[in-house]
Write a structure and sequence with these properties.
This protein is an alpha/beta fold. The chain has helices spanning 5-10, 14-21, 25-40, 56-63, 77-86, 93-96, 130-143, 217-226, and strands spanning 46-50, 69-74, 99-103, 114-119, 144-156, 165-171, 174-184, 189-198, 203-213, 231-239, 245-252, 261-268. 28% of the residues lie in helices and 37% in strands. The strands form 2 sheets. It has an 8-stranded mixed β-sheet with strand order 3-2-1-4-5-12-10-11. The chain has a 4-stranded antiparallel β-sheet with strand order 6-7-8-9, covered by helices on one side.
Length: 269
């Protein structure tokens, strides 16, 4: 059952905490706009968010322009319901009409005609074989307009291959905990979890759990080419004075080794 906003204030909700700790829809939408303009020299209007969860990015997309529309697809009805009750409901009436949320497998081809398709937060790592991932890329390409881009984030580095590792980050009144529980080098599979430690005491343990294949950049780009994409580029994150990523992503042909990194891959139809 979806909690009301009043309930959510006194009883932290895992979807609210996830959005606050993990997602940056405004920055994502700016990036989508930038790479589409670079490819086609015009402003993108139609976003398709695959594995959309609570559809926070869909909602930000329609906020960013009165002609923009967004289509969110996810197999899980629970985050979709939360997104309708908490994110979609916060939009002006005219913007709500420009968001479509669909409980559907992202492998289904429905010819959305999107300018941009986004698969964020490493969601496509749920595909464990080359055939599965290629099939997703083929479906995504078919769901793009004749001029379109597919935007994927990807992570890597030796730190991501370690077991029994936890990363803690304070976010407002909670602590976000990323746990890498187990890594299998034979299948390149990572079992990981997100927990939240609450300021008032107690935990939301295993709020989200993942069984991922850690794909590499060359593998993903090869499969994109096999699926028919014309080109793909890597946008590597710059580092600030402290040596940490600064949220600025630039197209690179080569990069320096880093213990743990996050990048974008942008495939152009």
């Amino acid at each position: 059952m979806v909690k009301s906003k009043r309930q959510k204030k006194s009883n932290p909700d895992k979807y609210d905490l996830y959005q606050r700790s993990v997602q940056e829809p405004e920055a994502d939408c700016r990036f989508f706009d930038r790479v589409f303009r670079k490819a086609y020299g015009r402003r993108p209007l139609v976003l398709r968010e695959d594995f959309c969860g609570t559809a926070a990015t869909c909602c930000q997309w329609v906020r960013s322009g009165e002609r923009r529309e967004a289509h969110g697809f996810d197999l899980d009805p629970e985050p979709l319901a939360w997104g309708r009750a908490n994110n979609l409901s916060s939009l002006p009436a005219n913007a709500r009409l420009r968001v479509r949320l669909v409980e559907q497998d992202v492998l289904v081809v429905d010819r959305t005609g999107a300018d941009v398709i986004a698969a964020q937060n490493f969601s496509y790592f749920a595909f464990h074989t080359r055939d599965q991932l290629r099939a997703y890329f083929q479906a995504a390409r078919a769901n793009l307009a004749p001029e379109g881009v597919l935007v994927l984030d990807i992570m890597g580095g030796p730190g991501v291959l370690e077991e029994d590792v936890e990363e803690h980050k304070r976010v407002g009144d909670v602590t976000y905990v990323w746990q890498q529980e187990r890594f299998d080098p034979i299948h390149h599979r990572l079992a990981c979890h997100i927990h939240f430690k609450l300021r008032a005491g107690g935990w939301i343990r295993r709020a989200f759990s993942y069984d991922w294949r850690l794909w590499t950049i060359p593998e993903v780009r090869e499969l994109l080419a096999e699926a028919g994409f014309r080109t793909s580029d890597v946008y590597w994150e710059d580092t600030g004075a402290n040596g940490e990523g600064n949220g600025v992503f630039r197209k690179r042909r080569r990069a320096e080794s880093d213990p743990a990194w996050v990048s974008y891959i942008v495939a152009v139809k």
